[in-house]
Structure formats: C-alpha cells, structure tokens
Amino acid sequence: MSFPKGFLWGGAIAANQAEGAYAEGGKGLTTVDLLPTGKKRFDVMFGELPSLEPMPGEFYPSHEAIDFYHRYKEDIALFAEMGFKALRLSIAWSRIFPNGDDVEPNEEGLQFYDDVFDELLKHGIEPVVTIAHFDVPVSLIKKYGSWRNRRVVDFFETYAKTLFTRYNGKVKYWMTFNEINMLLHLPFIGAGIVFEDGEDKQQVKYQAAHHQLVASAKAVKAAHEINPDLQVGCMLAAGQTYAYSCNPNDVLDAMDKDRESFFFIDVQSRGEYPGYAKRYLEEQGITLQIEEGDLELLKEHTVDYIGFSYYASRTTSTDPEINQSTEGNIFSSLENPFLEKSEWGWTIDPTGFRITANQLYDRYQKPLFVVENGLGAVDTPDATGYVEDDYRIDYMAKHIEQMHEAIKDGVEIIGYTSWGPIDLVSASTGEMKKRYGFIYVDKDNEGNGTLTRSKKKSFDWYKQVIATNGADVTTPVQTTKS
Prior knowledge:
By secondary structure, the chain is an alpha/beta fold. It has one domain: TIM Barrel, CATH 3.20.20.80. The chain is built from 15 helices and 14 strands. The protein has helices at residues 15-18, 40-45, 68-82, 93-96, 107-122, 138-144, 151-166, 187-191, 201-226, 248-270, 275-283, 294-300, 350-364, 390-408, 457-467; strands at residues 8-12, 86-90, 126-132, 173-177, 231-238, 241-243, 305-310, 314-316, 340-341, 347-348, 368-372, 413-419, 439-441, 453-455. Strands 1-2-3-4-5-7-11-12 form an eight-stranded parallel β-barrel, surrounded by four helices. It has a two-stranded parallel sheet with strand order 6-8. Strand 11 (368-372), helix 14 (390-408) and strand 12 form a beta-alpha-beta unit. Helix 3 (68-82) runs parallel beside helix 5, helix 9 (201-226) packs across helix 12 and helix 13 (350-364) runs parallel beside helix 14 (390-408).
C-alpha cells in the first residue's frame, strides 16, 4: 500500500487554537479571542454575542492556547522528527492587520510568519497556509458588521495580496477560508456575524457567504497574477450524509443536506451558483446584493484544488418517529446502527472517508487535499507524559487505508495533514482534554500545566507511516518514551 511519489504527509494546526500570545506582537483582538469555555461558548459561536470584549470571570483558551507563538521551533523540530513533508497552518489576520482595515500591515506580525516558514523550510517541510481560519479582526465587526458588509471584501483582498507578495517563494499552497460552509452553522466563528434583534438570519448569512465567495475569487486572481505557480484551494467540512432508509424522501433529504455544504464549493470550483441554490434562495425570499462583475469574477477565478476535513459521516431521515439527533458534531445526525462513536459522539466511519473522497472528486474533477482528519479522545499520560494511544493509531490506520482505496478508485489526492499533530484547543468545545495529537501537551481545561511536550505512542507510528509512504500502518514494535 504505497502512495503517490511526492505525497504530502503532515499535520494541521490553526493560529487561534495553537499560537496563544493573543495580545503580543501588535496583534489585534480576533473572533476566537471572544470564545470562552463552558455553556456560553456555543451561544457566541451561533452569533448571540454578549460583548465585543473579553468578559470578566470567563476563561478564554485561545489567549495562551499551547503557546506555539513562543515554542514553534521546538514543535517544528518534533514534526521534522516524524518526517513531515507539509504542515498546514493558518495566519492570524489580526497579526497582519490588527484592525482589519489598517493602511499598513504590522511588520512584527509579518516577520513572525517569515520566521515560522523559514523554520519549516529548513526542515524540508512545505507550508500549507489558510488565510482565514475562523479568524476575523474584532474591529471589523464593530465598524462594519463583518462579512455582511461588502467593504470587508476589499480588506480581505488587501490582506491576501500582502501575504502572497511577502511570502512569494516560501509558500506555494494556500487556502482562502477554513471550512467555509461553517458560516451557515456557526456564523460568528465562520464569519464574525453578530445578529441583531428581529433580522432575517438566513438573509444575513447568505449575503455574507456571497461576500466570502467573491473575496475568495479575488484572492485566487491576485495569487495567480503575483505568481502563476501558486496553488490556491478552497476548504470545506466534509462528510457523506447517508439516508436512514431507502425511502425516496430520506434519499432526497440526504442529498439536500450534502448540497448545503457543496453550495460553497460548487461556486469556488465551478464558478457559478448552482440551480438548486438559486431555487433555495428564491423560495426562502433571500435576495443577494450582487455587484456588477461579481459573477464574471467567480467564473474566471476558480480554485486549483479542493481541501477538506473529514471526521465523521452523517445520517438523516424524514420520519419524525426516528428523527432524534446524536450528540457530537455541529452537523446533526441520527444514530447509525452500523457505526461506533467517539467519546464526543462522532461516528467513526473510515469507509465514509473513501465515499466522501470519491464523491468530491466525481463532482469537481480537481485534486483533493485531505487537510484535517483525526480522533479527539481523552488521553491519560503516565508520569513521563507518555500516552498509549492505540485507539488513535487504530482510527487513523483505518482511515489511511481507506484513503488509499480512494486513490486506487482513481481519486487524485495530493496530501494528508492530520488534525492536529500536537494537542491544541478544541475549536468546538474549547477543551484541552479533547486531544488529537501525536504529541502530548501538559495543559488542562482550566489552563493549568507546564506546556511540556512529550511523545505519544502514535508519534512513532506516524513516523513509520511517513517513512514508508503509507505502506506500513501497523503498530510499531518500538515506542519512544520521552
């Protein structure tokens, strides 16, 4: 079981979940800096924001996160020891433009990412960079209402051009928005949207979506003008939706739920609004404000590849007697009797990974990049920080095997960056105990701990996977305790 030559094995992190240093280096406040832990977190993510400043008495995990900002050399050295070919990471918009609409970029922020990219390249690791990963400068919300306002398109274009110019020659692979379809489910984290009393939320979300799609096309245009060799992708939170039964109404409902996410990628990859989306907008009474030239821009500047995350599949039914959702992911799902679940209620479905990859490739016929996949679990370290995480090895081995089956099916996949190769703050819950990494970080949900890094059993396993280009996913005999 060998993967294509040059396959980009690695891992993925995000600035807001790893960097910390939320008020250092000239950085401005960003959306995730307003996400506390506990019950209030989801209220904020859904756009019910009580304050545009951190609230006294609340714990904000992004403020320190795992301190990648100060420890990136140590972490990159560990990634290099595993043999990483690529590291997907994001740039914090408010490190570059603290207010989002600044006339000049923040040099200290630009230099920080210069240093990170240089460190990666020194170790032979390709940076794969997301321009906006759940990250909107708070000042843009206060002054303009964030992505509901057309002016933010221009600010994003300036931001993207600044990055493409500054890091030309260091970064080849870019993505415009992380899991862009999350805008519809978590509008604050996806687009910095704060709802006003009585307004049409669907109208606001889809207008913001149009603005992000136009901004993405403008970024693709700018990148290719600056350097035709740059590769700019889109990115969605993917996962096959199964019909609970062969009732045609269930099948139609599953198709509609998948299309809710595909809508964004249809525009970014095919360059136009699909018919089903136009029908939905019309039937919902949603009228988009589309400026002259927008549709031509979308058509002429489509993405080069499709990035996607895959953690779980979903199941749906139109039968009210069985239509009870499970816990877990932002996407509601019925219990699937054929699948096991993680500790957070997410279905474990390696075959669904293969199905999803085939579905995306059949639909778009563009290279795919698996930029997130992994198992969030409670890890119990021994006194040295070592974790026997065979459950993670088993999960990932089965998913990698199914990814290889998809490649044998004819799907073009250029890389796989697991989420996240080092423990970091969970985007959904804000927890540290929901761990994904091959590297354990000594920190708990309340922010206590030394931040010491230590290798889990999966560290050597993934090192072996990369060294054999995916040919050997068995559990290694020798493990490293350090």
